[in-house]
Amino acid sequence: MNAASTSLDRPTAFAARTSFAEVVAEQLDAVYGYLVYLTGDRAAAEDLAAETFEKAFRTWRRFDPRRSSPRTWLCKIAHNVAIDWFRAEARRRRREDTYAQGQDLVDELGDGLPGPMEQALRELSPAEREVVALRVLLELDGPSAARVLGISQTACSTRLSRALKRLEERLGDVRE
Predict the structure, then answer these.
(1) CB 30 within 8 A of CB 78
(2) How far is residue 60's CA from residue 11's CA, in Å, rounded to a whole number?
(3) DSSP 65
(4) What is the DSSP letter of 10?
(5) What percent of the chain is modeled with pLDDT above 90?
(6) Higher-scoring residue by pLDDT: 163, 102
(7) Could you give the CA distance from residue 144 to residue 32 in angstroms, rounded to a whole number?
(8) 66 Cβ contact list (under 8 Å, min separation 6)
(9) Is the pTM of this model over 0.70?
């Protein structure tokens, strides 16, 4: 082995002879295409590709060409970025569904509630309406409601207490 091939085998030598800009130019279309395939959404893929290359830039000095090619390394980063995006999207959808269900419940219950009670329920946050619906209207016990909400029993109890206090304050203001 000569000195030149030994120095080129080291990661810092690779980084020194190959600029990050060159790697981006060579791999951008491949990474973007991979992300379009994963997400099925070109706009999301553009955002995720930008995040992928931003993360890659921050870790460029640690890239080791002996462990993988630049394309493989970038696709692994893109994969992790996409997984995070899918998780965030799932959380966002759950929040939207929870809000929509809470709104539907308030709308359904509103038909049989006096106006001030309906208005007071509408002024609660979606999370507060949900805990009231589970504990008061559906009569679930604390542990069951906490499981449905995905929170601790203590958090469930605290949320219910705050929601009931807000309802009481709203209804007290109406009576006076």
Answers:
(1) no
(2) 10
(3) T
(4) S
(5) 19
(6) 163
(7) 44
(8) 9, 11
(9) no
Give the amino acid at 132: V
Give dist(CA 27, CA 31) in Å, integer. Answer: 6
Looking at the chain, the whole-number percentage of residues with pLDDT higher than 70 is 78
- DSSP class of residue 62 equals G
> What CATH class has 113-175?
mainly alpha
Digit-coded pLDDT (tens) for 103-149: 555 555 545 556 677 777 778 887 788 788 778 877 788 888 888 78
By the 8 A CB rule, do 145 and 135 touch?
Answer: yes
The CATH code that applies to domain 3-90 is 1.10.1740.10
Q: Give DSSP secondary structure letters for 71-114.
A: HHHHHHHHHHHHHHHHHHHHHHHHHHHHHHHHHHHHHHHHTTS-
The answer to whether the beta carbons of residues 82 and 48 sit under 8 Å apart is: yes
So what's the pLDDT on residue 130?
79
Helices 115-123 and 70-110, interaxial angle, to 10°? 170
CA angle (14, 51, 47) in 5-degree steps: 135
Domain ranges of the chain: 3-90, 113-175
Measured CA to CA in angstroms, residue 7 lies from 22, 23, 56, 121 at distances of 20, 20, 23, 70
Token pair 């082995």 is at which residue? 1
